[in-house]
Amino acid sequence: VDADPEIRPYDEVLVVNERDELLATGQTLLSGEELKVFRSGLAVKVRRGIEK
Predict the structure, then answer these.
(1) Rounded to two decimals, what is the model's pTM?
(2) Cα separations (Å) of 43 from 4, 17, 33, 52?
(3) Is 20 left (phi over 0), alpha (psi -120 to 50) or beta?
(4) pLDDT value at position 50?
(5) CA 29 to chain centre
(6) How far apart, in Å, do the first and last CA atoms of the chain sit?
(7) CA quadruple 11, 14, 20, 23: dihedral sign
(8) Which residues partner with 36 through β-bridges?
(9) Cα distance between residue 6 and residue 20, in whole Å
(10) What are 1-52's pLDDT values in tens digits?
(11) Which residues contact 42 (CB under 8 A, 6 or more apart)?
């Protein structure tokens, strides 16, 4: 839904849901602006997901 425009490809990022709850950590493959535009495809190479 949203991404920091300062994100660059290969940055380490946190993936959160709409309630700002942590879902995963990983390495982004796109810039912050591209993350907001793309609607499908691989955007973040997830290293570790959070188990419930």
Answers:
(1) 0.77
(2) 14, 15, 12, 23
(3) left
(4) 82
(5) 9
(6) 22
(7) positive
(8) none
(9) 19
(10) 789 999 999 999 999 999 999 999 999 999 999 999 988 888 999 998 887 7
(11) 29
Length of the chain: 52
Whether the CB-CB separation of 14 and 44 falls below 8 Å is answered with no
Both tokens assigned to 5: 């425009």
Residues 6+ apart with CB under 8 A from 29: 9, 10, 42, 43, 44, 45
For tokens 């709409």, the residue is 18
User: Tokens 């493959």 sit at which residue?
Assistant: 29
Q: Which of 38, 2, 40, 42 is nearest to 20 (CA)?
A: 2
Amino acid at the residue 47: R
Helix, strand, or coil (residue 37): helix
Q: What is the pLDDT of residue 49?
A: 86
